Amino acid sequence: MPIGSRRRRAAAAVGGNVPFEQLPYQCFQEARKVLQADREEKVRLIDVERQRIARLEAQEPFPGTPAQKQLRLQSMRKHVEYLKVQADINDPMVKKIFEDGKGDMSKPVYRHLADRKWRSYRRLLIMQRIIQMNVVPDLLPHIDPVIDLSISFRGKTAHPGDFVESTLSEEAPILKIQPFDRGERLVTIAVVDPDVPVAEEDTFKHRCHFLACNVRISPTSPMVKLADLDQESQVVHSWLPPFAQKGTPYHRLAVFVLQQPGLERVDLEVANSKAAQRDGFYLRGFATRHRLAPTGVGLFRTQWDEGTAGVMHRAGVEGADIEFKRKRIEPMPYKRKDGSRFR
Amino acid sequence: MLLPRIAPSFRAASNSASRAARSPCSACTASTRPTTTAQRPRSPPILNFVRNAHHKSEGRANGPKQGPGKRLGAKKTGEQYVIPGNIIFRQRGTQWHPGENVGIGRDHTIFALEPGYVKYYRNPDLHPKRRYIGVVLQRNDVLPRPPNATRHRRLGMIAVPRIDPDTTAISELESDALAGIPSLPTAHEAVSSGTATDPSLSKTSTYAALQPREHYRAANWEIGRAPDRAAESGTGPERQRVSPHKFVKKDRFAALKARKARAAKIAEKRGAMGQRGPKGKDKKKRRRGR
Lengths: 343, 290
Hints:
heterodimer, A: Phosphatidylethanolamine-binding Protein, six-stranded mixed sheet, B: four-stranded mixed sheet, disordered C terminus
């Protein structure tokens, strides 16, 4: 006896070539009708809202301040975006395409689904790591990531906080900077090591391993190969391989994506001023000076391994022949007690 | 009021008297008792219900006595200099919580983790009620720090020359980098880095491979073969082949030959000893030797 309903058997007899929307299941088709009616309703609402926006824009003597008008327009546009997502979010085909990873990031619904997925795990993970490892507040006072940033070295993904071998991180990584809102933007990418030991001052300093400004990204073109950025118009400090001298505690390498205001370009002459030298680079000051808003963050770590000496030698960095050892802390002298109390 | 209570005793006495015939052991007491109760005067009896003073010896009523003092409390005052491991506060429970550069022990003892100055403080941003103890690196630092301020850290290390700055290793790595592939040390490298020091083993070490504990060296069987190989190549001394004949358990003739040979060898040895003369041996052993 064949398995399934009469319709299912009929479909199986036809073969696997039946389109998803035309599957001959009665309940399925009835459900699709409901969803289609809902979608038509949402599309109608979008039209209505757009007409309202057009009318409000055209309304010349607006009863209120221009700022109030802008605020209203902004909220109406936001509502249109919401309706666009709602029109498609219940479509089973949309769900299937997104789960197959073939979602078109130029469409609001796929951006919405991707954002939701990122916030459900990956964003929580990176937030946990940057708080545990004190990236915030050591490098920046505060960050609220809205961009998904993933780092990969030679095709290997470095998960947040991973130890990356020095030979692997010798080449500049490829970043996937995935925004979830519409449009292009210019960003500054900075890779900073806040754990550079300074033995003379008995403290740690920061070092910039990479700095590039005016990098154009959009939801549909998220891949940024750091080695391929333009040396004249974008790169301030080219990739310096991360290294940790022997004996030092692990080095955190924080990757920051900072959004530039509007589509303003950062002047590289200014960016490459004395304050933004590699050694003693302080991201707080840099971000404030250029009015950069931190929107994405990534983290990996490095420590001394067999390859580090070679990496340092090839990068022309001195200090591979130095090892760090714990400084002896002098014990406190015993307080000499009054002898007369002893008897 | 008393009379009804006496009456049962009468009843009991009469009952026991009747029972006395059956139980001879209690007969004497049973016979005396009715007579004594009969002699009691009829005047109202004196009620002496006395409640003796007593005191429970155990339990909650007698609270715990003053035990020995546990020497709790502050061991270091505010702003006092401490080094790592110094105990700052001993307590039961967390009267004080560990703050910056400070640890807490199994018995909630607060101790220093960095050399510095002790600070007692509260941090309403962290917790509205808790009191904290911290250690600052500079005496004039203030705790709590402003929210989102950078941490103050001390390196606490000194730079010394690295023990084995292997320059050859760097050049090898460099040559590998030209090929674009960082490679594991090969057997040849493992040899050159001093795994096989004996020159006679140089041939063996060409077989060096990754051993179970993740190091490169020749396998044990290779090392065992080394003298043979040296003899073959003429570099080492002539070597007898070990156990050329297979041991057969049933071959008793071979066993007899071996035993005789062993005995002869021993006898020869003893003879030699006898010639040299016994040195510090007792008579018995000397006699046996001859």
